[in-house]
Amino acid sequence: MTPGHVRTRAGAESRLLPPLPSWDRAAAGTRLVRLYVASRRVPVALGALVACSLVLRAALEWHWIPSSGPLTQQLPVLLEAGTASVIAVTTYSPFGEPERATGRWLPYLRFGTAGALTGIAVGLLSAGAAAAHLPGGTLDVVRNVAGITGIGLISAAVIGGGLSWIGPMAYLVLSEDAILNAWRTPWVWPTSPLQDAGAALCAALVFVAGVAIITARGARQRAAE
Amino acid sequence: MTSLTLPLRSESARIRPTRRARLLRLELHHSTMIWVLPLLGALFYFDPFRKASGYPPFWFVRSSVILHELVPDFSLFAAGVAAWTGSREGRRQTVDLVTIAARPRWSTALASFAATTIWTLVPFLGCVAVLYGFTATQASWGGPPWWPVAAGAAVLCAFCALGFAAGVLLPGRFTAPLAALVTFLVLIVAFRVVLHESHPTFALLSPMNSVPNGDAGVFFHYFPDLFIVQIMFFAGIAVAVLGGLGLATASGSRIVWRTAVVVTALGLAAACTGVGLAGTARMEANGVVIPAVHDAASDRPIAYTPVCQHAVIPVCVQPAFRAYLPDVVAALNPLIHQFAGLPGAPVRVEQSSSSTTPELSVALSATEIGTLVGASANITGSPPVLHLALPKLPSQPEPPSSQSLSDEQGAFVDAFIGPAGGTLGDPAQAAIEAALLHDAGSLPSPAAETANRFAALAPNVQRAWLLTHLPALRSGDIGLAQIP
Questions:
Q1: Residue A4 in domain
Q2: Does residue A225 sit within a domain?
Q3: Sign of the CA dihedral with B20 first, then B25, B27, and B28 last
Q4: Looking at CA atoms only, how far is residue A88 from chain B in angstroms?
Q5: Which residues, 6 or more positions from B414, have their beta carbon under 8 angstroms from its beta carbon?
Q6: What is the pTM for the complete model shown?
Q7: Which of these, B371, B447, B445, lies nearest to B411 by C-alpha position?
Q8: CB contact under 8 A, B181 and A62
Q9: pLDDT by residue (tens digit) across B331-371?
Q10: ipTM
C-alpha cells in the first residue's frame, strides 16, 4: 500500500487520495517531532542538562574538584551519570500501547531523541568545562556520557523509563568505588585513561546496544508507572 | 416495635488503628524500594563488605564502612526512590482526589514515606547484621559499636525525607534522578567545600569522615560525641522536612496545621543545635570531642589483660590483636636475638596505643588526624621496655615470611638505634638501621655503601662493633667513615 492509498472495507477497491503537498508533509513531520519531544518532556530534560553543565562550571570555577589524586574524577563522573539518567528517563512514554500500535515513526523518533540528547549532553558538559582544566578532557566526557547513557537506555528497556535512572546511578556507585580503590577494568571506563582503547570500545558497545534496544523496543511499559 | 441499642463508641473510631496499619501495609506492599533491594545487596557486597574485609578484624575499624561506604551508597537510592514515591500523586494527577479524601493528605503522605523508609532501613540493618556477623567470626575482643548504626539510620531517614518532599512538591519524572544526583553531590562535594571554609568543623557532620586508625576503639573508648551530633542534625532535618511537608499539604484542618508547625520547629531546633555543637568540636587523638555532649568517663583507657608470648623476651599485645601475636613475635625475634645483651636492649615488648604515640599522629586539618607511618616504637623505663604501636595491619595474619610486619621491624630498630623522641637520625644511624634491616635501597649513595658494607659483616662482628659503639652511635658521635 502506498501512502496515497487508504484501505476501505474488506473486498472493496482502495481509494486513491491526492498526495499531500510537500510543505504539508514537512509541517506534519515537524508537528510529530514537536509532539513527541513534548510527550517525553525533552525541554525539561534540556533544562536539567544545562543545570548539570552549570554545576560542572561552578565546580571548576570554585575549585570543588581537587587538582590531583583519584578524587579529580569523582565530580565529573557524577555529573556525567546525572546527564545519562536524565536522558534515560526521557524514554518514558505516557501513552503506552496506543502509541506503540499506531506510531510508525516511533523507532526513528526514539533513535533521534536519544542520539540528539546524548550529543547535547556532551556539548553542554564540554561547554561547562571550557577554558578550564577538566580531568580527561572532552573525549573523556564523550566516552563516559555515551557509555553511561547506554546503561540508562538498557535500564529503560528492562525496568521501564520512569525508573531507568537506577541503572546509571548503580554504575555511578561502582565507578566511584573503582576510582577510590584504583580498580582497572575496561567495563568501568570512567577509571581508565583516555588512551585505553578497551574502555572506549566497551563504552561504545554499551551505547550502541542501548540505542539499538531503545530504538527497536522502546522503554518497558509497567502498569505501576 | 422493638428498641435497638447502639454502642456509644462509633465503629470508625474503633477500627481506626487497623485502617492506619492497613494503609501502611498497602504502601509496604507497593513500595518501589522492594525492587531495588537486590541491587542494594549487590552494591553492599562489592563496596562496603569487600572494603571492610580488607580491614583488620577490629570492631570499630570495620564499622567505619557503615558511614563511609554503606550510607552514601544507600542514600542515593533512598532519596531517588523516595522522590519517585512522593511524586506519585502528582505524576498520576490524583492530587485533588487525595486532597478531598477524609484522611489528611499529610497522613497518607507520611504512610508512603514510612513505607519507603522502612524498606530502606531493613536492607541497611540487614547489611549491618551481615557485616557484624562476619566480623564476629574473626574478632577476638570487644563488641559491635552501635553509634555508627544509629547515625547511619538517621542519615538515611534524612535523605528519604528530603527526596520524598522533593517528589511531593516538584512532581515529575526527572525529580527522582535529580534527587539522587543532588544527594550524592551533597555527600561528596558540599561537605568537602565546607572543609575549606572558615568553620571547617561543620564538615564533621558529613557521614563520610576519615577512616580511623587500625587500633581505634581498642585502647581507648572512641568518643560517641560526633555520632550524637550527627544523629541530632540528620534526624532534625528529617523531622523538619516532614513537618514542612505537613505545612505545604495542610488543607483546611487547623489541628493538622498546628501539629505541622510544632513538628517543623522541633526538627529545625534539633538540626540547628547539631550544627552549633559541631562548630564547637575539636579533634583529639582518640576522636572528636564536643564538650556539650562529652562524657569524661570515656577518656579513661580501656582495661585489659595483655596476651603474651614468651620468646627470647616476652612480647605482649592487646587481646584484640591476639591473632597477630605469632606474626609480631616472628617479625621481632631475629632483631631481639641480635640485640640481646647490648646496652639498652629491651627486656619486654608491649603494645601501645597509636593515639598515645605523638610522632604517629599529625593534625592534617581541623577535622582530621592522620597516621604518618605504619608503626612506631620507643624504649622507656629501667629495665627497658619497648612500646610498639600497630596502627596499620593486614586484614588477616599472614605467614611470618611475608614481610607484612616490616614496618614493625623498622620501628623496633629505629627505637633501638635512632635518637630518642622519634626524631630523624643522622646518616650513620640510618646506615646501621638499613644494614640491620637489609634495606639500603632508600638511602643516598654514601650511606647506602656503608650500610651494604656493614650488612656484609658476620653477625658476631656486627654485634661486637655495636657492643662497643652503640652509646656513641645513639648520641650521634659516630660518622659514616667510622663504621666498618
A1: no
A2: no
A3: positive
A4: 10
A5: B377, B422, B425, B433
A6: 0.83
A7: B371
A8: no
A9: 888 888 888 778 888 888 888 877 655 544 444 444 444 44
A10: 0.86
